[in-house]
Amino acid sequence: MSGVTWQEYEILRATMDNYPGLRMTYLKGTLELFMPSPEQETSKTTIARLIELSSLEKNIRLYGCGSTTYRKKAKERGLEPDESYCFGRVKEFPDFAIEVIITSGTIDKLEVYSGLGVPEVWFWQNEQFRLYSLQDGKYEEVTRSQFLPDLDLDLLATYIKMPDQYDAIVEFRNAIQEK
């Protein structure tokens, strides 16, 4: 939808909070609504469990914020990531967010995230990661996370692709403990 004011977005967001799973992305008058598919939810949960396991194994203080609604009126931006995390402590905005892309919408999510000041965004699409780091107000694609630089993304991807989530978690734990 286009031509949606910030006030209308906030009213819709408040009204629709009763619909579990409904996601909204808002960027300067354009609003996108969508419901995640079972495939998207399974992938984002597997990714989250693997990242959280890795941080525990490496004794990294990682705080999961899930799909919290993040918004900034002054920048006319708002969204709910598939997953989001803070390091060290919980903050107003996450240190990094994860988006699982099954079908693309029309809104450029990196533009939304840049207005929110989220330092890093991970996209999982076509069974691979693409990471973006915010540099001087713009995202640049990077090959390693600034927050989890030792995390082997190719190894992580291998376990996300496994058909059984439980087995993936157990095998990933074994693999990282061997390193």
UniProtKB/TrEMBL annotation:
Domain of life: Bacteria
Keyword Nuclease: yes
Keyword tags: Endonuclease, Hydrolase, Nuclease
Residues annotated as domain Putative restriction endonuclease: 6-153
CDD domains: DUF820-like
InterPro entries reported in the protein's UniProt record: Nuclease_put_TT1808, Restrct_endonuc-II-like, Uma2
SUPFAM superfamilies on file: Restriction endonuclease-like
Record has Hydrolase as a keyword: yes
Pfam family, one: Uma2
Record protein name field: Uma2 family endonuclease
